[in-house]
Amino acid sequence: MLIALIRGLAMAALVATLTGCAAGPVNPRLDAYGPDGYRYAKVRGEGAEQELFVILAFSGGGTRAAAFSYGLLEGLQSITYRPPPDAERTLLADVDVISSVSGGSFTAAHYALFGVEGFKRFEEDFLYRDIQGELIARALAPWNWVRLLRSDYSRIDLAADLYDEVVFKRATFATLLQQSRGRPYVLLNATDMTLGARFEFTQDQFDLLCSDLSQVPVARAVAASSAFPILLSPLTLHNYGGDHCDPDRFLPPTWLKSASEPSNPPRRQALARNLMSYRQDLKDRPFVHLLDGGLADNIGLRGPYIALSGQDSAWSVYSKINNRQIRRVLVITANAKTGRAPGWDRRESPPGISGVLGLVTTGPMGNYSFETVQLIAEASTGGRRASPGRPPPRCRPRERGGRARVMTSTPRTGGFARASGATPPPASANRWRCVWRGSRLRSPCRARK
Amino acid sequence: MSYVIVRFVEPREVYIDDQAQGSNLAASGKPRALFVGAGVHTFRLGGAADVDPPTQKLDVPERPILDPFSVAFHKC
Fold first, then answer.
1. Which chain B residue is nearest to residue A375, measuring alpha carbons?
2. Stated pTM of the model
């Protein structure tokens, strides 16, 4: 009996090893540079933008963040209006860009892939499912032990495979592009461990790695975006820049060359230096290791900030305003951070190890969120108005130049009983999803039995 | 944020870092103020190649709408 069991395990390990060895690299090499791939211009196309440009930002925060951002999508779907001379439509249909990190990336990627029709499936496949329990079960399964011992397979690959199978149904970025008609452009953000900077899963970013994003599973990007430190291992990408790709054929965007000039403002220079490091440090950077996007920006607004503050983006909002493609900009942040005070200061004894660990692993992630929201508000108004609490200002189209106002709205998420940051039970997920019912947006929350 | 006006005798498409920004002139014939992020940018005009200089790489400072940064091209 014992011998049979050992034989079975050995056979399972052998099969798993051979299967794993047959797998190709996570991100294949790019055959030739070109305009194709998952880019803003390919997703939104000509004339897709309306007068109102809508950007959503989904924060990190595990399943709580996924539920919270899902509630926002439901709320936007329930708001209809009729901009003359067009027919009535929902505000959700007007969303142009979603930028997300960590838990919010599940909602963003699923909506971009499956649309409103996929709402019900998202609840069944992810939101009310014990995905963490399934992940632990897979990690404990003997046939995965040998795979996990390999240098090219780790816990993040196990997670990505699970998400690929049960949530994103084997969709790649090529699938995402094919199914993106009428849907928003999604920035799934991770963190480059070496730079400590944002890394987005777009072909513009992958051009710098000389890599083809279209063959990368969406689940890989979501796994990288939500690779919480220590719990999950980093996701590793190959950097082919200058290896078999001819670096002379790669022409960096003009804004990147301009931003590399030493006389630029420090923040702009740093952005250019980080991006060009994938091309210039080829011997030092044949691999890129990615962790949770919340480490660089836990609110998902840094990408939109770049687009909202200049021409240094493939979807520069300044350029769209100058071109009179858009007149108003609405930015909605779904920040799932809880407002609950830990109560440490009521006791003389210092917080225990769990409190300290909780702080060092999650505290820094939220530190820049407030500043990022303020940066966005100031970038859009020239620093004159930064008032998330004020009523939305009326915008009058003007002849000279374009005028746009950015309204940032971070709903108050405090006041709720504790919700687990990892895998809340269904009732808790539903509660977070329904937070929007109490805010300005109406959410069609249903009582879940 | 900075405001920039691009001076040229006739309406032309303005390109900043090779991104189209719309016409340099408003319908009234006056220069339009364009939103530009502060820093180094390459300016050029679309249409016929009768513009001098063909491109300009300039360091755009922060400027308010009442005192926009001016970029001048001449017809040759």
1. B1
2. 0.84
